[in-house]
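RECORD TYPE: inverse folding
INPUT: structure tokens
STRUCTURE:
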């Protein structure tokens, strides 16, 4: 007479729960919860606020009040008497705290053996199996170790026509060096963008606006034609310090020492004068975003979230209707997301990446897009033993000056192409900023935010939203993240209204 629910260490798979009219409802998909007669679908304003700033809704919140995501590494124990208790069985912070100095050679030797072992375990399969291969270090690392254990490995990658967005050549170089059987999938501007967007976004159940879901959907669809299981490099950035925001945090410390008239006056005005080139992670976008964020959030913990988000915290007042803003105006910036379990310094950012971005953005994206095509994706980096070892490596060996993922780069030297080892972190986003210059995409945006389901939510100021599109079209500001997030919300509003 006891119910025990559990979610894996990192949240690779979802688990939803909530108590409605004295009934505990739980499911691995929100679609199942919707079918329960006692479920009440009241939208949570704070979840929408999270969506608009982060592009996703972080655990434990969902888009509906009273329905929650169980935290990763947790059990939920419900007794017949009606009590419900959460118990934590895995804590990333404790493994970070165990970091210690060792001889570099010993670390590399242990890391090599453990990654090899975990990839070998992930390769166990009775069905055809392959590896997702981008132009980055993590997927190349997985492909290298997979090839160490198998004579033949199939690798799969998506590329774009726009060269600045494509990692086609880096992936090809890795596949050639390792000798894999490589498959390439080209993604262009969809012929029917409304239908494609609605099809992809509907898979998530609640609104989700990471645009890399679009190529991940195509990658999963194409991969499933050849194999049933695919290995991914998910977790490498979070465990080994792969994000440029780590470097940006160090720069912010110096920035905060500059005179206020430079930080909040001249620099902000100069940033506004920079043209927007709409290339992937262009220098002008990085500079603008850094300055805008640094002006609003001198606290590195808050800035860590703002740099990677969509809507700036200050833009909320302008985008939201007065009625909706009144419901979320008192929220401290990103307060629910900043780790509060005693860690400090860079460890906070490692925890934030593990407990927010990895769990609620990247793993959600890969899980939903792959399962939409009945493709199983396995992330060997997130084997608990490997993760524990990686978290225990001193942070200076992960982020060394301006070089991220230092220890992993050192391990893979000579094993994967130097062009991959030396490449900057760029992400997996499609050329969304360029797509929003297309009249068809602009018409789709305008129709989406003006549709009656979206208007009935009473969340956004339609005139300001269209102003974001106008500024983007004029090349004054890359607003593609904000625009796509609004589309994701509009598509959800349409589904919500039909339930």
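DESIGNED SEQUENCE:
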């Amino acid at each position: 007479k006891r119910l025990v629910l559990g979610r894996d260490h990192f949240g690779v798979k979802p688990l939803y729960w909530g108590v409605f009219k004295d009934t505990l409802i739980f499911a691995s998909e929100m679609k199942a919860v919707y079918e329960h007669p006692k479920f009440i679908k009241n939208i949570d304003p704070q979840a929408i606020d999270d969506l608009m700033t982060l592009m996703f809704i972080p655990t434990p919140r969902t888009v509906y009040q009273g329905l929650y995501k169980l935290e990763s590494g947790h059990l939920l124990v419900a007794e017949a008497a009606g009590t419900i208790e959460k118990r934590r069985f895995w804590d990333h912070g404790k493994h970070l705290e165990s970091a210690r100095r060792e001889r570099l050679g010993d670390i590399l030797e242990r890391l090599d053996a453990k990654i090899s072992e975990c990839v070998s375990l992930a390769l166990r399969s009775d069905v055809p199996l392959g590896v997702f291969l981008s132009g980055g270090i993590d997927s190349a690392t997985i492909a290298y170790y997979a090839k160490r254990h198998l004579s033949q490995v199939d690798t799969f990658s998506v590329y774009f026509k726009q060269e600045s967005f494509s990692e086609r050549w880096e992936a090809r170089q890795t596949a050639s060096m390792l000798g894999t059987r490589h498959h390439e999938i080209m993604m262009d501007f969809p012929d029917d963008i409304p239908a494609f967007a609605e099809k992809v976004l509907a898979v998530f159940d609640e609104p989700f606006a990471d645009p890399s879901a679009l190529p991940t959907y195509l990658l999963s669809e194409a991969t499933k034609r050849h194999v049933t299981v695919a290995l991914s490099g998910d977790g490498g950035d979070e465990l080994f310090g792969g994000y440029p925001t780590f470097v940006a945090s160090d720069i912010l410390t110096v920035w905060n020492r500059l005179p206020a008239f430079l930080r909040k006056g001249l620099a902000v005005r100069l940033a506004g004068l920079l043209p927007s080139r709409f290339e992937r992670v262009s220098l002008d976008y990085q500079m603008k975003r850094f300055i805008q964020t640094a002006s609003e959030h001198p606290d590195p913990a808050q800035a860590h979230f703002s740099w990677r988000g969509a809507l700036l915290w200050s833009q909320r007042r302008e985008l939201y209707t007065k009625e909706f803003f009144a419901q979320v105006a008192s929220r401290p910036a990103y307060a629910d997301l900043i780790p509060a379990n005693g860690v400090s310094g860079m460890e906070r950012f490692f925890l934030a990446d593990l407990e927010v971005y990895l769990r609620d953005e990247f793993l959600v994206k890969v899980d939903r897009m792959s399962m939409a095509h009945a493709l199983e994706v396995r992330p060997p980096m997130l084997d608990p033993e490997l993760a524990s070892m990686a978290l225990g490596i001193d942070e200076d060996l992960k982020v060394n000056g301006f070089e991220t993922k230092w220890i992993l780069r050192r391990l893979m030297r000579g094993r994967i192409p130097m062009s991959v080892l030396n490449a900057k972190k760029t992400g997996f986003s499609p050329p969304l900023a360029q797509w929003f210059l297309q009249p068809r995409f602009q018409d789709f945006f305008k129709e989406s935010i003006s549709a009656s389901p979206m208007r009935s939510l009473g969340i956004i100021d339609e005139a300001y939203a269209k102003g974001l599109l106008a500024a983007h079209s004029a090349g004054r500001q890359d607003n593609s993240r904000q625009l796509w997030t609004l589309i994701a919300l509009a598509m959800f509003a349409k589904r919500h209204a039909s339930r």
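NOTES: DSSP finds 24 helices and eleven strands in the chain.
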